[in-house]
Fold this protein.
Amino acid sequence: MKGLYCPLAHSRPDIHRDSEVNSVFDSIQIRSRTIQSLTTTDYSMDLSVNIGKLKLKNPVMTASGTFGYGEEYADFVDLNLLGGIVVKGISLKPMEGNPAPRICETPCGMLNAIGLQNVGLKTFLRDKLPYLRNFDTKIVVNILGNSVQEYVRLAKTLVDTGVDGIELNVSCPNVKKGGMTFGIDPRSLAKLITAVKRTVSSTVLITKLSPNVSSIPDFSRVAEDAGSDAISLINTIPALSIDTETWKPRLANVTGGLSGPAIKPIALRMVWEASQAVSIPVIGIGGITNALDALEFLLAGASAVQVGTGNFLNPKATIEIISGLAAYLRRKNIQTIGDIIGGMKGTKSGHNPDH
């Protein structure tokens, strides 16, 4: 696969990695001398951030659905170094996901229509969570359901086991029903968040917003007013790719979610808009593959970032981003990462970049 590591490609036994992934991101060459200079390991600077009552040792988290359940990347990444692991979305019962093919390459990105395949709550608690408890990193569980009651049951069970945070998946575009219904309707979203927060009041609740709404600021405020401790955005953007030889869509699901560097400018704009609209922490997601990308999101107002598709291009991306952030702080003579957050020049809270 020419260097691409993608757990999703072998997440179903009936799917062949080479035919489904086939060198996703093979054409993406975004590494630069500047990026390389940022990857010198340096953890002496203060990278810690707070997401509500949850303190992360650094602002770099993994994005749900791109890092498996953590164990899949343990040979590449010291999980102890991560700010947090957001595991693959969990439903009450196992889900098989969509039929193959369900991943394809696009210019500067990829389309996926995995369909929220997961092992289900029971297996996660028995087989996956105990492994994660061996590491000194925060565990956030992304949950999904078809009703408020399902979300509440999932959240309560997980909180009772002592996980550090819950992320509500209300924005996946690749399923026929479920969370997306909540994510695009403000009343439904508010009802869901209120119900779950009532159940998990002692644990940090993060709402993962959909980019497919009329106003990101409005939906951000809905989440905050309903009791969410933080918001994360963006999820993938619905998109389509067609094989011009067969005249058929490249995905069996026809459409899929676009991710990777192609969506970064859109994600960055939405994160900035959200951070201007609410006082709760914003977690930036979308096309983050290196420390410079992460810095842009922090400057736009994100308190933390999640690395998603970048993990497929480079399994060590998260660790390189962490060390790159530390090196950047040292080079700029900035003592804490908090001094960067929301510092985009020209904004109300902008900081002077000439340190």
